[in-house]
Amino acid sequence: MKTNDVIMQFTAKLVFFIIFFFAVHLFFAGHYTPGGGFVGGLVTASAIVLLIIAFDLKTVQTILPINYINMVAIGLILALGTAAFSMFTGKPFFTHYYDYFNLPILGKTSLHTAALFDLGVYLVVVGVTMTIIQTIGEDE
Amino acid sequence: MEIVMAFVCGFLFMAAVYLILSRSLLRIIIGTGLLSHGAHLLILTMGSFKGTVPPVLSDGVTDFADPLPQALILTAIVISFGVTAFFLVLAYRAYSELKTDDMSLMRGSEENE
Amino acid sequence: MSNFLLLPIIIPFFFAMLLLFGQKNIAYQRITTLLGLVISIICAIGLVSNVYMDGPQTVTLGNWPAPFGITMMGDMVASVLMLTTLVISLFIVWYGFGSIGKEREQFFYYPGIMFIITGVNGAFTTGDIFNLFVFFEVLLMASYLLIVLGGEKAQLRESIKYILVNVISSALFVVAVAYLYSVVGTLSMADISLKIAEINQPGIITVIAVLFLLVFGMKAAIFPLYFWLPSAYSAPPIPVLALFGALLTKVGVYAITRTYTLFFTHDLSYTHELLLILAVVTIIAGCIGALAHFDVKQIIIYNIIIAVGVILFGVAQMNEVALQGAFVYLIHDMIIKAALFMLIGIVIYVTGTSNLRKMGGLIQTYPTLGWFFLIAGFGLVGVPPLSGFVGKLLIIQGGFIAGNTWSTLVVLASSIIVLLSVMRIFIYAFWGEQGQLSTDVQKRKYNRMFIPTMLLVILSIFYGIGAEWLNPFMSDAAKILMDPSIYTDAVMKGGE
Description:
Number of strands of chain A: 2
Domain NADH:quinone oxidoreductase/Mrp antiporter transmembrane (chain C): 128-416
Subcellular location (chain C): Cell membrane; Membrane
Main location (chain C): membrane
Shape of chain C: globular
Helix content of chain C: over 70%
Structural class of chain C: mainly alpha
Structural class of chain A: mainly alpha
Strand order of the largest sheet of chain C: 1-2
Strand content of chain A: 5-15%
Membrane topology (chain C): Multi-pass membrane protein
Oligomer: heterotrimer
Radius of gyration of chain C: 21 Å
InterPro entries (chain C): CPA3_Na-H_Antiporter_D (IPR050586), NADH_UbQ_OxRdtase (IPR003918), ND/Mrp_TM (IPR001750)
Strand order of the largest sheet of chain A: 1-2
Largest sheet of chain C: 2 strands, antiparallel
Shape of chain A: flat
Strand content of chain C: under 5%
Largest interface: B-C, 39 and 35 residues
Helix content of chain A: 55-70%
Number of helices of chain A: 5
């Protein structure tokens, strides 16, 4: 059955970006305030799910040709790499580093290796969620 | 507040046990979700529940909540999210393969098939 | 501070990630897995020798001071268990090359194994009770994947029950940790031990002890909680079954051992008496199951339950002799169970059935298989000088020292039942009239399965004969189990 869902598709295209940027905001907010990689990843996944609902799985796979399993693996390697980095400098595993930098537009910002770890978590969460949704959604 | 929380935890566990004992696979999965919610709420209550107080120690703050239970809950939520998602996929696969979601029809071992 | 002790956990984890790439390339998957395991084994051997030379190693993650950060603790117990886990996994992976099948190899079989090793090794090493929960979940998630891998009907059906049981026990684990945290206000296992000793274990701690016994007992399959094990373990293919049978219940046993020797040591007349009774009933229940079944898989699966009972019986005695026995027997049981599952896997492969009544006369066609099965069976029972003997001897001796004469006699008698159950397999499958034989046995595939099995049985023989040489390691482990202050000192002073 083919339904006419022009409004849905048009809105989804717009709302996808709003949700996605909100996810990015949540991800960076997670440093000092509520938020972080896990929530950001879930919100991003929900944005992609919205696209899947509005269009269908095949279309979305052509728009975003991402292998989500590899995404999980890259995320895990990033997280483990950040944690293991301190092993090479003789500090205990998982020791984080941070410092304050004066960046051009943002002004004085603290850069923290925990953000890299969180990026790994973000990729893992998006990857796992999308893998699961694709697995259920694939066979109609 | 602890008393209320104790009742809420108890109610969540009760509902979870009721759902887990039912036959339908989907109800069982919802039951496991409620069970982990109950457990998470219990950690929150056990780590000296203080309502709206933030778990951050900084200058001028004298009243703060214990941050550790919140970190534990976050970890436990992530884990239960993963397990529930996996369980749902498995339930779907089992349903399409076995053509039933009734647990009473899924008993038995190789011999009496 | 020594990051080295983390390597047997991190390396399998890292290789698991590498294995997530290139699913379809079987050669890449196999070589990467073997490489990862061999490197981890070298690190684990290094760790054992380090611990032997310098005493327990600790590292507190994130450079936090000791009772606040997550401590990883590599003592003799943990490092020897890690080494055993890795060695057994290497043999099982090797065995799996011949028997697991292409579809599974292309669908996350190897990453699953590496993740399960990560979880198991992490659970052995961690010195933080909540981190123990996290590593339990890592190994459980991997085991969910492995148990359902292949998607046969029986697997789907049994894995649902397996996951449900484990989800409930995980929720109870969280509850138990929450209660413990509300009483002692810390999660570091060393700190918990000190705090409980300070308040002299009031009644509430004893309640929590029983709750922990319930949680870990569900994973270790002790008496009233083993109901899920026989049917769940009969579903997956043999290499996965061998991995589960050798490792997963043992993690539960280790967790009971650790908590009951480190935390709850002040009300022995209640907690350890309960453990003793449950252990004896577990042995009896396992014996009944092992004799009742005519399915080779089920017989060995019920032998897991008997072994869990024997090890926990040793732990319940709470003296150094019995604890050393329990530890020696734990390592023995991991090796010999893996070997036995691999052997019956071959028997099932060459006969095409797992029903004992249909087998017979295999000794004519496969004499070496028969004799190796006999050796492994005797090893399981504990015929001297094979591997089960020393552990069981020490456990029995410890039981008499503690004055539990009758229950010790039950453990002794259970050896005869174990002997009967494995001899039944030997007599039915290898003696008598020629029974059913599978028609498509390929010599190459048979050899691929048989060589690792043979080597593992030989390893178990050396474990038995070399008991004298291994004694310093084992008594070191028993000392740590017996005296919590070695553990707590290592953690509290290691962070400085």
